[in-house]
From TrEMBL:
<dbReference type="InterPro" id="IPR006301">
    <property type="entry name" value="FlhA"/>
</dbReference>
<feature type="transmembrane region" description="Helical">
    <location>
        <begin position="31"/>
        <end position="49"/>
    </location>
</feature>
<feature type="transmembrane region" description="Helical">
    <location>
        <begin position="101"/>
        <end position="120"/>
    </location>
</feature>
<keyword id="KW-0812">Transmembrane</keyword>
<dbReference type="InterPro" id="IPR042194">
    <property type="entry name" value="FHIPEP_1"/>
</dbReference>
<dbReference type="GO" id="GO:0009306">
    <property type="term" value="P:protein secretion"/>
</dbReference>
<keyword id="KW-0813">Transport</keyword>
<keyword id="KW-1003">Cell membrane</keyword>
<comment type="similarity">
    <text>Belongs to the FHIPEP (flagella/HR/invasion proteins export pore) family.</text>
</comment>
<keyword id="KW-1133">Transmembrane helix</keyword>
<keyword id="KW-1005">Bacterial flagellum biogenesis</keyword>
<feature type="transmembrane region" description="Helical">
    <location>
        <begin position="7"/>
        <end position="25"/>
    </location>
</feature>
<dbReference type="Pfam" id="PF00771">
    <property type="entry name" value="FHIPEP"/>
</dbReference>
<keyword id="KW-0472">Membrane</keyword>
<dbReference type="InterPro" id="IPR001712">
    <property type="entry name" value="T3SS_FHIPEP"/>
</dbReference>
<comment type="function">
    <text>Required for formation of the rod structure of the flagellar apparatus. Together with FliI and FliH, may constitute the export apparatus of flagellin.</text>
</comment>
<dbReference type="InterPro" id="IPR042193">
    <property type="entry name" value="FHIPEP_3"/>
</dbReference>
Amino acid sequence: MKIRDNAVAIFVVIIIGFIIIPLPAPLLDMMFIINISLSIMVLLMTMYVKNALQFSIFPSMLLMTTILRLALNISSTRLILTQSGKAGQVIQTFGEFVLRGNVVVGFIVFIIIVIVNFMVITKGSERVSEVSARFKLDAMPGKQMAIDADLNSGIIDESMARQRREDIQREAEFYGAMDGATKFVKGDAIASIIITFINFLGGTVIGMVQGGSSFTEVLNIYSIATVGDGLVSQLPALMISTATGMIVTRAASDSSLSIDVTKQFLSRPIVIIIAGFTLICLCFIPGMPVVQILILAIGLLAAGFNLKKRNDIVAEAQKANVPEAAAAEQDETSYYKNIDNIYDLLQIDAIEMEFGYSLIPLVDENSGSSFIERLVTFRKQFALEMGMVIPAVRLRDNGMLNPNQYVIKIKGEEVSRGEILVDYYLALDPGNLTGEIDGIETIEPAYGIPSKWITKDKKEIAEIYGYTVIDPLSVVVTHLSETVRKHAYELLSRQDLNQLLDTIRKTGSTLVDDVVPNMISFSGLQKILCNLLKEGVPIRDMETILETISDHAANVHDPEVLTEYVRQALKRTITRKWSDGGQIRVITLDSEVERLIVNSISKNDQGTYLSLDPQTTQKIVSKLLDCITRVKEVINVPIILTSPVVRIYFSKMLEQFYPNAVVLSFNELNSDVQIQAVANVTIE
């Protein structure tokens, strides 16, 4: 078990122990310095984090720092009252530095600090927390509806929807925690005032009654200790109160506190470095315990620079792994005098994106863009989902494009384009809005959903109204991912097929050598896999695909027919992909329609084909489109269920008129799935 995973629990137990166990003055000095350092880092963290989830442990940190200050106050009070005001160098130095020989001035400064902390910062943070919590909780129903709309429209999958719901739930939990956490700071300020007067009055009584000292001597001794103790606790409290005001809009996390604390602090080495330099500055205050400060400051600086160096090495390694085209700085004419260089112009990238100049910062890593990371994530998800690794995406700038436009090319030819407003958000209309919002009308490029470009200040209200709000980078990534899914069958090359087969060979299976090329050629297998990808069927289960081909290749040589056998063997995959909760809603074909299709199947030397007359074809398609229109509220993606012999021909016929429809046969569905027919295509 890692120590750092339990560091916070151990630390809290030690803090509780300080309330009971008397601390020697040097150790108390070290704990005061640690308290100041921790407060500085918490304050800096609230300044450096970009969003709430990067410092979601704040409510718990607020409680821990409050307990630490109170425990140290109790320990210092014990020393002040039992050691005649001698409670360590930190308290003495702070008291002498502020008092400057005048007790009245020292108390006034201390009271001002307490009032500023209690009445200004803490009160303001508490109010902001209440207002933010109310606003976020009011927005929750709209956000939930937006997630459901995204899920139903296919923009996100079930896992992403679950993650978004968890984020919303964590936000609600966070603001509920913050509403009470701000009371800790208020109570700490009140307790500090009470403890200060107890120290002063108790010390005066003990010094005069038990110690036999004069009132002047007692006043001089205990005023320094009392004010110093109050300042040592109130300065960290002031920083924590300020941090509270900065973090009230943050969300909570679902990880354990120890892991979050260590990971989130270590992820920001600049915070540790600044905290170390700040401690060094404390050494210039006369009387401060230089040894303790330097020990902690050097430790923080060493840790910070070590972490920064390690992060820089990782960043350089990642940067080195990204292939970059090194442009040769030489005269173009002389370069192309070499005819071999001209052949380089003939190379075609499988996937290419071109951007107008305004969109370059959106995808440039040097500008802080996460576009490459998003592509890597998509490539991993697509491989797990479809069983195919998509090739690298070439990114180029194109001065001929509109500054806000981008183009997606497959094998050198444009297949899609879009337009992005970088400083705006895209608000998608899922169809169940509770209000309208002003914006620039547009159409979402990936799915063709009516949308609006809105400014950042309208994002929250748009989510409350039920809009699905996404950032510009997500629009581009989503459009690219859907384009790749649509054209995946064009991207599966012979080389990719060889790599897929080599992956199966690594498992020790002899299936590949038995089937390819003995029973089917590489080109035939590639044709079958492309047929599957074209209709969205995953090819990850290559062993089942090869086994099915092995069973039927001796008698069937047509790749189209072999594809149908493979689809039936992959019925578990097909059922999982298109069913929902053990149920699948479909549109069926009337027996008369299927009979017309079967009777129109013709055969020649190249294979079988459908020779249905144009009038009948148009009538069937029109009836189907009418059915799709009627049930579009029930089915997001139209699924047409046919008999096995009809499926392939009906799918090819429908491809020309409605390419987004899914055509399945009865043999491609598991027997345990419940089939619900919501419409039936008939011909009167």
